[in-house]
Design a protein that fits this description.
alpha/beta; 27% helix; 14 strands; Lyase, Ornithine Decarboxylase, Chain A, domain 1; six-stranded parallel β-sheet; 326 residues; TIM Barrel
């Protein structure tokens, strides 16, 4: 999955890095797919659930994009369209997420409509799990069986069920096509991979200390003086804020790394700056590198302190943050 600019990592870079190890790439918006098509002219690209209109069908045919069909009405539109090139269609069954996808009855009707259409060269059956990242394996098993059952009723077709969580925790769902997303970027949505199996972060969001200030008992830090010193402490001001993508609602104590040592957020994040208690960091000085998330402090850990998930952190790093790739 390379949607949302490769989960904020840079879709072109991710595509180049994965290379032939990936059989294709999934995008969520037509503009994303068309942009990646220019960069990867021969790669198989899948446009995920979107509004299917005549313009979308035209672009998919011209750019050789696979397309997810998630409504019977879209299958009807496709069957009656005049396309220059037939499409590979991923027919989506709703198995319990209740966002996109068809009921069994509509799924069967759409399949029968498309299988003989001149606009369709291949059909793949797919669905998406709602609970694959939780310990409730029975929910995922029930949802998988819904797609298995619908697909079996229609014959033998390639299947795609497994997202990152299912790839890790539910091997019976792997089928012919798997759709790794967040795991590509170093985050385990199940929280079960440890030791040699643990995933390593791809993104390292860093800044530097631009000022140091000693505060004393009763002194507050930042807007509203949310954090207040109980004893003499050393506060670092760091050149990153919510305009760079660091969450404004991060709580006091949210971890970060300074010179390979842990420190903690102290005070409300502002637009361009944040502040941290670095009293216990050895030999700290202005100019020292700070890791906001990456090696030593995972995006998932930061996200938990912010009441969100790593996906949101990754995709909200703003355009003014400089990117370096290796």
């Amino acid at each position: 999955m390379l949607k949302a600019n490769g989960y904020g990592h840079g879709a072109n870079w991710v595509a180049d890095t994965l290379g032939e190890r990936a059989q294709g790439f999934g995008l969520a918006r037509l503009c994303e797919a068309l942009a990646l098509r220019e960069h990867a002219p021969s790669k198989r690209l899948l446009l995920l659930g979107t509004l299917v209109d005549d313009n979308t069908l035209k672009h998919c045919a011209e750019a050789r994009l696979d397309l997810v069909i998630h409504r019977l009405e879209d299958a009807q539109r496709l069957s009656g369209a005049r396309l220059t090139t037939p499409l590979s269609i991923w027919l989506k069954r709703n198995v319990g997420m209740n966002r996109l996808g068809m009921s069994h009855e509509d799924f069967v009707a759409a399949q029968q409509l498309l299988v003989g259409s001149k606009n369709v060269k291949e059909v793949i059956h797919m669905s998406h799990f709602s609970d694959a990242d939780t310990p409730r394996a029975e929910v995922t098993e029930e949802q998988a069986e819904r797609l298995f059952s619908s697909s079996r009723a229609l014959g033998s077709f390639p299947l795609s069920l497994a997202n990152s969580a299912a790839i890790i925790a539910h091997p019976h769902t792997h089928a012919q096509w798997q759709r790794p997303g967040i795991m590509l970027y170093g985050d385990d949505p199940t929280g079960t991979l440890t030791g040699d199996n643990a995933l390593r972060p791809v993104m390292h969001f860093k800044s530097r200390i631009i000022a140091l200030k000693t505060v004393y008992p009763g002194d507050g830090v930042g807007y509203g003086r949310r954090w207040q010193a109980r004893e003499q402490r050393l506060i670092a001001t760091i050149g990153a804020g919510y305009a760079d993508g660091y969450p404004r609602h991060a709580t006091d104590g949210t971890p970060l790394m300074v010179n390979g040592q842990r420190a903690s957020l102290a005070g409300r994040v502002s637009m361009d700056l944040l502040t941290a208690d670095v009293t216990d960091v050895d030999h700290v000085k202005v100019g020292d590198e700070v890791t906001l998330w990456g090696q030593g402090v995972s995006a998932a850990e930061v996200a938990e302190r912010c009441g969100t998930i790593s996906y949101e952190l990754f995709t909200q790093v703003s355009s003014r943050v400089e990117r370096y790739y290796d």
